[in-house]
Design goal:
The protein is an alpha/beta fold and about 290 residues long. It has a single domain, classed as L-fucose Isomerase, Chain A, domain 3, CATH 3.20.14. It contains 10 helices and 12 strands. It has a 6-stranded antiparallel β-barrel. The protein has a two-stranded parallel ribbon with strand order 2-3. A hairpin with an 8-residue loop joins β9 and β10. The longest helix has 21 residues. It starts with 13 loop residues before the first helix and ends with a strand. The mean pLDDT is about 95.
């Protein structure tokens, strides 16, 4: 689907991707997606297996119908990725899916990322590619989490909130996981239409933070390090407080270099591997 209105930060140019990297973007209309989903039976063995796996790994505060719909969405997207040879997907995660299908796609997106199909929110294609860079740099040993990173900690210096609505892969959880209704869209669309977010605090440890952008055919990648700091706070969505050496400097770089509010976080220090990739790919490194 298309990016959300006013999310110009997710706009991108396909031609430089094709010309420089041979990277194709394959569109899938939401109409075709909903058609594929509805062709999957509620009692399909794969649907039953996914629902069982979710219940075994998380506390569930949504109905069985929501879990079944999420499982069917996961299967339809996975089938599309397989048939087209896709490594990742940018999903129009609001509000058409909620309005027309009756769930939030966050849970399915996180589960697909855990299976090696990177899924970024709000049709952020350069965000998907950022995730793929990190996943490959880790030699596929760990998956990334697609985040917003614009909120400072209320008290702790050089600490920001790595957050999104509930799309984190379950393998990254640092504690209990709860499948709930969307914490923002419930007031707008009604709780009965927005179930299916995987809410959790991410596990602590060193992380690498990256963001790919392109301007006038020139690609550059932000490279930064941080540390997830455990917290006793009870926040909504999938989240972690990340401490960096110089948050003012990081935010200044975002503004001055044209980076955006979306980024990707991966556990471990992968800065050397990612710099080496950029050297061979012809991508400028902006390191903070």
């Amino acid at each position: 689907g298309p990016r959300p209105e006013r999310f110009e930060t997710c706009a991108y140019d396909e031609l430089p991707l094709i010309e420089q990297f041979g990277q194709r973007v394959v569109p899938l209309s939401l109409l075709d997606l909903f058609t594929a989903v509805r062709e999957i039976s509620d009692d399909d063995p794969e649907v039953v297996s996914i629902v069982r796996d979710i219940r075994e790994r998380a506390e569930v505060e949504v109905s069985d119908e929501v879990l079944v719909k999420s499982a069917k969405l996961e299967l339809a997207l996975k089938d599309f990725a397989g048939s087209k040879g896709l490594s990742g997907m940018g999903i129009q995660c609001w509000t058409a899916v909620e309005e027309e299908y009756g769930i939030s796609p966050c849970l399915a997106m996180g589960r697909l990322t855990d299976q090696g199909i990177m899924c970024a929110c709000e049709v952020d294609i350069l965000g998907v590619l950022t995730m793929l860079i990190q996943y490959s740099a880790s030699m596929k040993r760990t998956v990334p989490h697609f985040i917003d990173w614009t909120i400072r900690h209320q008290e702790d210096e050089d600490t920001f909130l790595a957050w999104h609505c509930g799309n984190a892969p379950m393998s990254l959880a640092g504690g209990p996981i709860c499948i709930r209704s969307h914490s923002i869209l419930d007031a707008l669309l009604g709780e009965e239409r927005v179930g299916g977010t995987a809410e959790m605090q991410l596990k602590p440890g060193a992380v690498t933070l990256n963001r790919l952008v392109e301007y006038e055919g020139r690609f550059k990648l932000l490279v930064a390090r941080g540390e997830i700091v455990p917290s006793d706070q009870k926040l909504r969505g999938s989240w972690a407080w990340v401490k960096v050496p110089d948050l003012d400097g990081l935010y200044r770089t975002l503004v001055e270099e044209g980076f955006v509010h979306h980024a990707s976080l991966v556990h471990g220090d992968l800065t050397w591997e990612i710099r080496e990739f950029c050297k061979f790919a012809g991508i400028e490194v902006v390191e903070v």
